[in-house]
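re the bet — no i am not wrong, look at it urself. input seq straight from the record:
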Amino acid sequence: MKIYSIGIDLGGTKILIALINRQTGKVVEHVKKKTKKDKGPQNIVKKMLDGIEELIETSGVKLNEISSIGIGAAGQIDRKNGIIIAAPNLDCYDLNLKKILSEKFNLPVFVGNDVEIAAKGEQKFGAAKGYNDFVCVFVGTGVGSSIVKNGQIIYGSTGTAGEIGHIIVDLNGRQCACGAHGCLEAYASRSAIEKRIEGALKKGRKSAILEYLEPGKAITSSMIQKSIEKDDELVLQCVTEASEYLSGGLASIINFINPELIILGGGLIEAVDYFYQETIKKAKAKSLPVPAEKIQFKKAILGDYSGVIGAAFLEDRGF
């Protein structure tokens, strides 16, 4: 039996490619590529192919020792055919990753949603180990989630279940990357916080975050955390606003799905504990009393690796 698989986490700012030992869940070797400034299918596919070749070369593991390639992408996925149907944060539509990668490397290729693979990783080796009913929510460039019931991921009739980032929180609200208005993602993601801070800075607001900003560089979760440590009024205001919206989305999950556990992950959750603590406190306060009393919250514990580890096990899904 082949013990290695390649797991790929294709997100709005980076592509993380890793060789995973399927017996232990350990990352043997990894390669990271930036995606944010190179959106679009051609650039993303090239970086992915180059990254896989680099990974194989540096790891010393041969192709015939690898059982499959699994990919988690931010967006709506046709899992059966391995196609990214729509990923607005990547500017990718109808991209057949399964066909491209299987032809290049002659390996079985499996494609899923990015939070689906994170949920799978946390279920097998992380914070959800031992739980059968939970929801995984990751906050990054966007806001995504995956629902696990009776130990199985719920995909929905069109395979798009779990798109919490696109529940409507303001009927006449901000435009989202998906084209709709008032989506949770437009209020609670790191990108949304970044836009709010940048907008305020352009209007002349003062902020400690200016100490960390570099021309042409994005605001990172680390910069947000450093500014909060300095009690920066603007950053605290923007993060608190985002936590209000995210907590409302989580309260809706608690009331509607009634899971035993909600796992929160992503760069903003990992780096900014204030955001995490405020969000779970407000989510419980906004939920119905009985589920609010029972719900458990945990941070994802596999960090950056939750996605690539989960992706390496997509072949167990059977298509």
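see?? The radius of gyration is 19 Å. told u. also The chain has two domains: 4-114+304-317, 127-299. so pay up
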